[in-house]
Amino acid sequence: MRHPAAGETPPRGAPLVVQGLVKRYGRRQVLDDVSLEVRPGITGLVGPNGAGKSTLIRSILGLVRLTAGSVRVFGLDPYREPYAVRQRMGVVPEDECSIPGLSGVEMVRYAARLSGLPGTEALRRAHEVLDWCDAGQERYRPVETLSVGVRQKVAFAAAIVHDPDMVILDEPTNGLDPIERQAMLGRLTTLARRHGKTVIISTHVLPDVAAVCDDLVLLARGSVRLRGSIADLTRTARPEQRVEADGDLDALQATLGARGLPARKVLDDSGWMLLVDATEPERLALVWPVARETGARIRVFEPARRPLEEVFVEALQEAEHAAP
Amino acid sequence: MPLHDVGYRAWTGHRLGRGAAVAVIALTGIRLAWTSLWLRRAVFFAWTPCLVFALAFFAFEQAVEDGLLGAARPRLRIDQAIDSIGSLGAVLTDTLAGRTWAGGQSVEELRRTVWSRLLLAFMRAPQAVLLAIVVGLIAPALISRDLRAKAWLVYFTRPIHEWDYIRGKLLVLAALVAAITMLPALALWIMGVLVSPRLDVVLSTWDLPLRIIASSLTLALPTVLMALAYSSLTMESRIASFAWFATWVACWIAHGALTTADLLAAEVADRPPAIGFPDGAMFGDEAFNRPPPRRRPPPSGFRWLRRAAGLDQEIDRWSWVSPYHALGVMQAAVFGFERRPEAIIPPLVSLATICAVSSLVLLNRVGAPARN
Hints:
The complex is a heterodimer.
Chain A: E1 16-25, E2 28-38, E3 41-46, H1 53-61, E4 68-73, H2 82-87, E5 89-92, H3 104-114, H4 119-132, H5 148-160, E6 166-170, H6 178-194, E7 198-203, H7 206-212, E8 215-220, E9 223-229, H8 230-233, E10 240-246, H9 249-258, E11 263-268, E12 271-277, H10 287-294, E13 297-303, H11 308-322
Parallel strand pairs in A: 3-7, 3-8, 5-6, 6-7
Antiparallel strand pairs in A: 1-2, 1-4, 8-9, 10-12, 10-13, 11-12
Chain B: H1 18-34, H2 37-47, H3 49-65, H4 68-72, H5 78-81, H6 87-100, H7 107-148, H8 152-156, H9 162-195, H10 201-204, H11 207-232, H12 237-270, H13 285-289, H14 303-308, H15 323-334, H16 341-366, H17 368-371
Helix pairs in contact in B: 1-9, 2-7, 3-6, 3-7, 3-9, 7-9, 7-11, 7-12, 7-15, 9-11, 11-12, 11-15, 11-16, 15-16
């Protein structure tokens, strides 16, 4: 993802292009010159409450009247061709929304029919996606009696039942237990990687973003404060390689240092580890024979990343300082 | 893992248009509304007046079949001639046939008029009241419940325009209105055909089904638009329900009060002055010899039937105040019993205003949560 320069024509393939989006409600400015480009894959849209995420999503759907700027979804203007755009989109809103009186499967079927699927096909497809979402027999209960987790599955199934090209999810893991959360993230990954969908997740849960997202957009006070691939954003100031190993880390650190490959020992959520200087990446191959020599068994060997939380807080603090 | 889990698969079938989405909204709305026991009871009771009117049709046709009507024609006293059918026949002939009778009229013409008046009375008197009750049971929840459950997100994140949503909801109510006004009235017409001596009465009454449909639409359009507008103004269906019934009752009372005030004013104008006499003539003979004000003869037959069947010739100048009375005038116009512009235009303008304002409110309110 990158910020398109003014007047620059966005690349043809970008599923979502937002340029200079401004939205005011009376005197309150909710979005201030928001420009971004979303590529296929999973993009995390994060930001504190009131940052303008929901308004941005509604703008993408063509629901709110824009003060200025433009939105293109698959090259279509959602304000001129809202039906063509919405046919290619699926949305899981943050708010629980349902039609009281319908069962889970009826709800998904209803959503399918509203999107234009014929009756029988809609029912078949509803069962198919509910099976994929592991909704079980709960699908036959009225939606208002379902647990939050199952309701979330039904909402997700309703969003994808018509096979949209872009799926927007607002807090998709809300109310899910850890196993269901993992399963939901797995489904999103499948949609993006195997089926080529563009998935946008609006969430506060940064570990979810770190786990599945390719790109990140941070909104604060109605402006884009941070954008880019997760890999770029979490890159450390100095290139370092993260080495987690079982065995004597002190010996490994000392031997690497003696061979001209400095390393520092740090502690994080995963336990103690070494961050090895990767200024000269070709020298990193030395780590493996040294580990063998010192009897250490390497478990993790990957470029070191800054925690996403740190990136997030830093960007917000910058936004706070920049605010008038 | 479910037995039939085939994973996620792409779907490349043919998609239906927005009209199908409107039909889906309507059908689902009807199905959900029909789960209400109160609605089922109300619709059941809405058909019961049919029995009374079916008897009236039967009584009239029996008179025709027995030749009583024909025998009575020279005497122009058909009400007495068919008394033997029973009180219903007497009421029917006295109220409808007797007052409709013209010397040279054929039985076919008389039948057509009597049937029209019966159908008008049926739709205007019991069905219009029942309609207000049934719509009041269902309509308030139709949009307010969606607002409360945030179901608008289900609709407006899909290829559906706000007007499609409104049309779907209107169809839900229109179907219910048709079920309690149009369908029973059409059933009455069919029954009339079946109990008539010859089936060729269809030819002489062919326009009545069309008038029934038109009358039902006249009844449905302003009422369902107004009911949905109320529903869209609040998340609490109870408030919408209260507003709906309050409108009907308050307007009815206002109409009654204004009409009564007119009658009182007319009576005062007819009465001699209580104090003093014209030209200063005190205790003059003129005052005592003045004839008493002429009173109208008391109406014969059932007054409600006479009024509902459009036999009152006086123009109700306050009909525009009350939706019920305005709709009554318009229905009489649809059945061809009211042709005077001064009687039709005020209620027509009133109902058109209701439709326009309700449509604007609906369009504005339905999309409001998505826009904000």
